[in-house]
Amino acid sequence: MSDIALTTAEYERVFAVLESCNSVRTVTEFRNVIVEAIPAVFPVRYASCFVGDTFESQFTDKNATATNAADHRWESIRENYQEHWARYDVFGLPQARRQLQTTRVASLSELGRLPRPAAVYVHEYLHPHHMHSVNAMHLDLAEGGHALIGLFDPDADALGPKDILALRLLAKQLAILTRSLEVLPGYDLFATLTTRQREVATLVSDGLSNAAIARQLMLTPDTVKKYVSRILAATGCSSRTQLAIDARRQTFQPISA
Q: Hey, which of 166, 199, 216, 240 has its CA 20 to 30 A from 71?
């Protein structure tokens, strides 16, 4: 796209989104603003914003926001995605990740031939939800965090080359903002865990094996194994290692008896 020149209209779109984000100070504020700001000026109908401590953990963000998130259908779409499809997301593919890291914006149309699981995701999840134009923007957050903004439209040709170029310019400017955003104090990634699950998650983060956790909590190893499986499902973590990383970063509230 190096031979494409942006017009005044594209620059105005970029400036409009930046102006919308000018007063945000936290990640929560940003994610709520950005999913409305981009569709308001760019030719896409929907936007979503997923956040994670690692690139991989973005896809299982249970607090992801979206355009018109108040619509009850968003909860159903998000739950279906996280339960069945997050692991097959096309923007988790190596070629998509490279594109996102180099230009900050990637499009499904640029990814070429997809492996079967990703192709099934496109045809059985995205298309039935009227997402035929499929694009993503990657931004860095403070302390190594990541934000992935999805941009979707029923029209596969909604975004043209100039739009993509403008989005890449926008992403470059937004990255300056997002790296300085604050995470709201008190945010608890493990808010849905029971008291016992929090205890197990804490011990996993300390590096204890299931057998060691069982001895400390006076449980059977099989019971601990079940707890760990349920914790992984509840937090969206893909492995014990990811759980340990997230648990170490998480400030747990005191556990009452």
A: 166
What pLDDT score was predicted for residue 147?
95
Residues 92, 201, single domain; the answer is no
Q: Are residues 173 and 199 in the same domain?
A: no
What DSSP character marks residue 115?
P
| pTM, two decimal places | 0.71
**125 and 210 housed in the same domain:** no
Query: Does residue 103 carry a pLDDT above 90?
Result: yes
Vertex 20, ends 74 and 77: CA angle to 5°? 10
Cβ(121)–Cβ(88) below 8 Å: yes
Number of other residues whose CB lies within 10 A of the CB of residue 115: 11
Total domain count for the chain? 2
Tell me how far CA of residue 227 lies from CA of 20, 183, 189, 198, 224, in angstroms.
43, 28, 17, 10, 5
Does residue 172 share a domain with residue 47?
yes
Tell me the Ramachandran region of residue 143: left when phi exceeds 0, alpha when psi lies from -120 to 50, beta otherwise.
Answer: left
pLDDT at site 186: 46
Full residue range of the structural domain in which residue 121 is found: 8-178
* The 146-153 sheet, strands edge to edge: 65-66, 46-52, 146-153, 133-140, 105-107
Query: Residues of the chain with pLDDT > 90: what percent?
Result: 60
Q: 């209209």: which residue's tokens?
A: 9
